[in-house]
């Protein structure tokens, strides 16, 4: 019965955001329930194009915590993880510094005022 309690296998890949996560976050935060919210972090889903190694890209929905969505604009590349047996269940698996390093378009240029 060890198969019931085995650690699930996950694979990491890069994924491109197909919709604006920041916009979804802002829309969610405008809801009345968030005016004085103190519960667990809410997760939302954002459409992505996953780019696995040695396999063709595919589209899926990525789960990500509401407070981690501020850098997730359309076109941004993030690291994700998924179970190869359930590739449509994609989870965010990145940190802000790595996202900024991978996506220079998110950084303000020194010429901007």
Write structural notes for this entry:
This protein is an alpha+beta fold and 113 residues long. It has a single domain, classed as OB fold (Dihydrolipoamide Acetyltransferase, E2P). It has 3 helices and 5 strands, in the order αβαββββα. It has a 5-stranded mixed beta barrel with strand order 1-2-3-5-4. A hairpin with a 6-residue loop joins strand 2 and strand 3.
Summarize the structure.
With 113 residues, this protein is α+β, with helices and mostly antiparallel strands. The protein has three helices and five strands. A five-stranded mixed β-barrel has the order 1-2-3-5-4.
CATH fold assignment: OB fold (Dihydrolipoamide Acetyltransferase, E2P)
> What's the architecture, going by CATH?
Beta Barrel
- Rg, please? 16 Å
Can you list the strand order of the major beta sheet?
A: 1-2-3-5-4
Mean pLDDT: 87
Assign an overall shape.
globular
Number of strands: 5
Q: Tell me the number of helical segments per DSSP (H or I, 4 or more residues long).
A: 3
The low-pLDDT segments are: none
Distance between the termini: 62 Å
What is the level 1 CATH name?
A: Mainly Beta
Taken as a percent bin, the fraction of beta residues is 25-35%
Name the helicity range. Answer: 10-25%
Multimerization state: single chain
List the helices and strands and how they pair.
Layout: H1 2-5, E1 11-17, H2 21-29, E2 43-51, E3 58-65, E4 77-83, E5 86-92, H3 96-102
